[in-house]
Specification:
The chain has 3 helices and no strands. The protein is mainly alpha-helical. α2 packs across α3. It starts with a helix and ends in a 5-residue tail after the last helix.
């Protein structure tokens, strides 16, 4: 979603790899040096930054607990 929203509008999101780096960074530390420029890109990035670290922690959590 982020790639589709930002491609053609954001000079730092030219390839799918650019968007994947942004999204994977948001899942871990919550920021990147790529700035969102479209309303949809801003919404999707905000949701990813808010929910991403919790989703990553849940995915890596011990299933025995």
């Amino acid at each position: 979603m982020f790639y589709a929203a930002e491609k053609g509008h954001n000079e730092k999101v030219e390839t799918l790899d650019d968007a994947l780096v942004f999204c994977s960074t948001c899942l871990s530390v919550g920021y990147d040096r790529t700035f969102r420029v479209t309303p949809t890109g801003k919404r999707s990035a905000a949701a990813l930054m808010a929910l991403g670290p919790a989703m990553a922690a849940r995915a890596l959590d011990d299933p025995e607990r």
